[in-house]
Amino acid sequence: AARTGGIRRRLAALPAEAHRGGVAAGSLPGLVALAAGLLAAGASAPARADDDETSPPDQPSITGKIEGWHWAGVPVVSYGSDVGLTLGGALFVYAPFSERPSEQRHSITVSLSYATRGPKSLDGGWTAKRLLGTSLSTMLNLHLSDDGQMPYWGEGAQLGGLSTPPGFGSPPEPYRYHDRRAFLAAVARALVAGPFGWHVRARYLNVGVPEQSALLASSSPPGARGGRVALFEAGLLWDSRDRDMGTHRGVFANLAAFAAPAIGGVSDFGFHGWDASVRVYVPLVLGATLAMRGVWDVKRAGIPWQSAAPTDAVPFFERMLYEGISYNEGLGGGGTIRGVARYRISGEDKLLGNVQLRIPLFTVHPAGKPLEFGLSAGVDAGRASQPGYDAVQDAGAAVGLRLAWDRAILARFEVGRARGGDNTFFVGFGEMF
User: Fold this and answer.
1) What's the predicted TM-score (pTM) here?
2) Is 68 exposed, middle or buried (0-12, 13-18, 19+ CB in 10 A)?
3) What's the 3-state SS for the chain?
4) Residue 301 forms beta bridges with which residues?
5) CA torsion angle for 332, 335, 337, 338 (degrees, to 10)?
6) How far is residue 350 CA from its own chain's centroid?
7) Which residues of 331-342 are buried (b: 16+ CB within 10 A; e: fewer)?
8) Cβ 421 vs Cβ 167: under 8 Å
């Protein structure tokens, strides 16, 4: 799988409000390999800086702590029907609050992945919370990718007459194009009164298309040869969650408006839109949580306060993305509709719904740090439309295993299936929502 145009299938472990994704699609051996990596991290963790003991020199550690900073390295080997064999690794560095050890103050993520049938990605993320003793938080997110098998399913997200089920993994040859992109985003957010607050966001996307697919060349949508987009966004939010990761109760809601003006030499298209999202977490018995998410995202050509221009258009690669503080790719894949092929449900108007049951099982304490095991089960559904075409929609279901390390790193191992599709496997870091 990939992310922002190749992104969903990478190894980023970004915060819940970030453009996140997973390593998509892993075979059972791949899942076991990552689980073993996490367990090995706990088993070989060195002693704390203020302890007298140190790790034996002949026992390499992939976790540690240096002057208040904790770090963990996770190797990943996985396989998926859409991207083939994926090899990669992720480095997590985080500093918890001294008065609240379970909450991260700063976090840095660097990840690299290579898929034999698709995306090759480099991702980086930086987050800082409670700046200057206030509720102000900031985040930077960088993504670089090269995907020789990026899917373009046609205008209206149709299949051009080819009988291919929505759950199909790798797109057939006429539907693959070569996509190279760089994505950079910066977000600032703060609370004003209680759970009520605001956010601002800026992002820059530069897409290159070294080689078009037959369908992309014949359809020739806006952005068929790539392009640049500079987008600016502002919004209001409501955040009453008890914690960011492993949320047990509360509501997170966001309403945002955005504009991407055409700027000569910098941004090639003019469009605007809005995004509304809500996540609700309901505590159940025995520590279980019912998590629900809804997203409505709309993009329209042109800028309302400017006269119509030839550059007014929503490029085809923007139909895959939804905005808001929880910006991500859509729809299809491990972060939106599990079991549906990546980017299969795309358009200027998008609706997404998820319901997931998260059940804790037990906790162990290797090296004195909590490693929590749990299960999840849920259903996903999405719908997208493009002016002049019928809407496309689909749904899927998934079950999985959850591992939370030191209350800072969450790994998800999930299998999903869409109606009429095949089983798909995902390895992801961070909450799906």
Assistant:
1) 0.81
2) exposed
3) CCECCCECCCCCCCCCCCCCCEEECCCHHHHHHHHHHHHHHHHCCCCCCCCCCCCCCCCCCCEEEECCEEEEEEEEEEEECCCEEEEEEEEEEEEECCCCCCCEEEEEEEEEEEECCCEEEEEEEEEECCHHHCCCEEEEEEEEEEEEEEECCCHHHCCCCCCCCCCCCCCCHHHEEEEEEEEEEEEEEEEEECCEEEEEEEEEEEEEEEECCHHHHHHCCCCCCEEEEEEEEEEEEEECCCCCCCCCCEEEEEEEEEEECCECCCECCEEEEEEEEEEEEEECHHHCEEEEEEEEEEEEECCCCCCCCCCECCCHHHCCEECCCCCEECCCCCCCCCCCCCCCCCCCEEEEEEEEEEEEEEEECHHHCCEEEEEEEEEEEEEEECCCCCCEEEEEEEEEEEEEECCCEEEEEEEEEECCCCCEEEEEECCCC
4) 271
5) 100
6) 16
7) bbbbbbbbbbbb
8) yes
Q: Report the Cα–Cα distance between both ends of the chain, in Å, rounded.
A: 17
* Residues in the chain with pLDDT values less than 70: 1-67, 78-82, 97-104, 160-169
CA distance 286 to 361: 9
Half-sphere exposure of 304 (CA within 13 A, CB side): 8
Comparing CA positions, the residue from 24, 126, 143, 142 lying closest to residue 76 is 24
Count the Cβ atoms, other than its own, within 10 Å of residue 345: 30
**243 residue type, one letter:** R
Residue 164: its pLDDT value, please?
A: 65
Q: Tell me, what's the pLDDT at 48? A: 28
pLDDT of residue 269: 97
Q: What is the pLDDT of residue 21?
A: 32
Residue 258 phi, psi (nearest 5): -145, 160
Q: Per residue in 177-218, pLDDT tens?
A: 999 999 999 999 999 999 999 999 999 999 999 999 999 999
- Preceding omega of 331 cis (within 30 degrees of 0): yes
CA 161 to chain centre: 31
